[in-house]
Amino acid sequence: MTAQVSVERLFLYLYPFGAGAMAVNVFFASLIWSWIGWPVLTPVHSVLGGALLGVPATWAFARHIRHLMEKADP
Predict the structure, then answer these.
(1) Sign of dihedral through CA atoms 42, 44, 46, 49?
(2) Where do the H-state alpha helices sit in 1-74?
(3) pLDDT at 1 over 70
(4) Is the backbone of residue 37 left (phi > 0), alpha (psi -120 to 50) or beta?
(5) What pLDDT, in 10s, does the model give residues 6-31?
(6) Which residues contact 59 (CB under 8 A, 6 or more apart)?
C-alpha cells in the first residue's frame, strides 16, 4: 500500500518550479513584444507575472501528475 499524495500537496511542492518557469516565459515574451514597440519587462515585473501565472499552470500540472499517479497505481 502506498501513501496518497493530494493535488494540493503536489501543487505546493511544484509551485516554485512552475512560478520560475512562468517568469522566464513572461520575460522572453516581453522580449518578443519589444519587436513591435512594447517595453521589455524588468526582471522584477517578470517574477511578479510569473508568480501570478504560475498558480493556474502549476495547478493544472499537479492535477495531471496526480492523474498519472492514479493511472499507474490503481
Answers:
(1) negative
(2) 7-33, 43-72
(3) no
(4) left
(5) 999 999 999 999 999 999 999 999 99
(6) 7, 11
